[in-house]
Design a protein that fits this description.
With 390 residues, the chain is α/β, with parallel strands linked by helices. It folds into 2 domains: 141 residues, Aspartate Aminotransferase, domain 1; 227 residues, Aspartate Aminotransferase, domain 2, CATH 3.40.640.10. Helix 4 packs parallel to helix 5 and helix 10 runs parallel beside helix 13. The longest helix has 19 residues. The N and C termini lie close together (6 Å).
């Protein structure tokens, strides 16, 4: 198989190209760039915090929470230690009863199920739809007298069909809660992921579109009672007057991480714009390959504004393709170790999710991050075309 051979005729979007481009390294994610891409600005932020000795629940937390709430147009944004704890505290705050069921999509990370379990509930998996999001048509079959809530995962920076999910929840008098860990800034019909239900949660893991330099998360809500309980729960049950008034835990976002997130949030619009640009380039260069099923292009559906946390596609001969890309210096990822939640038998999980089963035989995530150049994307796409054309 020749190394990345292609012609201008086969790849007209690329213009004049070398039929054997020089091999390059395209990592799946560039963690060093998170700091090096804005070293001066981030150094100033870090030095300001440490010189103030401001480490726990200081003004930087308040400032970040205010920015997040304003961006999402919600009443309350409460930062916590990580995205999993955000969901866990949300279930505690809504008083999820032991044995009550929460319907989740199996196309998600195990954290979605973990939070339900440790809050005393039972996670129930349903299938994904043709759009790779929670399938509204599969939700009703999973509803039982024990069902309390529906929790769609806004995966890969896309928001599910919340009209359909909302109609089912209203019909059966169920709560909606959202795992929007990968969806900050994603919208459905102009409304942001994380704002459709009783509460929504986000993760600020370093590789997220908005990531800090460790773990971090947030819960957002328009429900005053939920917000009050989560604030108590995250800080040992201590109220604003410093009095312990409830049982709680320690799930505070470090003030240093809050300051970093607040600084990075100022350029978040440009980050989303650039990720959509890179996704559009992938789409234009890979469209027409019958061996691939691509995610929707940035402007393919006016109802959706996708932020492309990941560029996940479905590929024939996925494992062989991944090996070939690795040999060309290109990093890829099979999301969540290739194990959707309903397949995790060690946790007692199960479910009839044939679309998810099929998807995880074929899914692959390509590099998409702020250190990625247009030429990197062209190189990745040339390699994919070379693999299939050979």
């Amino acid at each position: 198989m020749p190394l990345l051979g292609f012609s201008n005729k086969a790849f007209p979007q690329m213009g004049t190209v070398n039929p054997a481009p020089e091999k390059r390294a395209v990592p799946f994610f560039n963690y060093r760039y998170l700091f090096e891409g804005d070293e001066k600005g981030l150094t100033d932020v870090i030095m300001d915090v440490v010189h103030r000795g401001a480490y726990i629940l200081q003004r930087d937390v308040d400032e970040f929470e205010a920015k997040l709430a304003k961006f999402l147009n919600v009443k309350h944004a409460i930062s916590v230690a990580d995205g999993t704890n955000a969901m866990l505290l949300g279930y505690f705050a809504m008083d999820l009863k032991r044995g009550e069921e929460v319907i989740i999509c199996s196309h998600t990370y195990v954290a979605t199920a973990n939070a339900v379990h440790f809050a005393g509930g039972v996670p129930v998996c349903v299938d994904m739809g043709p759009d790779w999001m929670m399938d509204p048509a599969d939700i009703e079959r999973a509803i039982t007298p024990r069902t309390r809530a529906i929790c769609p995962t806004q995966v890969n920076g896309r928001t599910a069909d919340m009209d359909a999910i909302g109609a089912i929840a209203a019909k059966h008098n169920l709560d909606i809660v959202e795992d929007a860990a990968q969806g900050l800034g994603s919208k459905f019909k102009g409304r942001y992921a994380g704002t459709f239900g009783r509460w929504g949660t986000f993760s600020f893991y370093p590789a997220k579109v908005l990531g800090c330099f460790g773990d971090g998360g947030a819960l957002v809500t328009n429900d005053d009672a939920i917000a009050e309980k989560v604030r108590l729960l995250r800080d040992h049950g201590r109220n604003a007057d410093g009095k312990f008034v409830a049982w709680g835990t320690n799930s505070r976002l470090d003030n240093l991480q809050a300051a970093i997130l607040s600084h990075k949030f100022d350029s978040y619009g440009e980050v989303m714009r650039r990720r959509r640009e890179l996704a559009g380039l992938y789409h234009s260069l890979l469209s027409g390959l019958p061996q691939l099923e691509l995610p929707p292009a940035p402007d393919a559906d006016e109802r959706h504004y996708d932020i492309y946390q990941n560029y996940e596609l479905s590929a024939d001969r996925r494992d062989a393709l991944r090996d070939y890309l690795k040999a060309q210096g290109i990093g890829t990822l099979i999301q969540w170790g290739g194990q959707p939640v309903h397949q995790i038998s060690a946790l007692g999980m199960s479910g009839n999710c044939p679309r998810v089963d099929r998807f995880f035989e074929r899914c692959l995530i390509l590099p998409l991050h702020m250190a990625l150049t247009d030429d990197d994307v062209r190189y990745v796409c040339a390699a994919i075309r070379s693999f299939y054309n050979a």
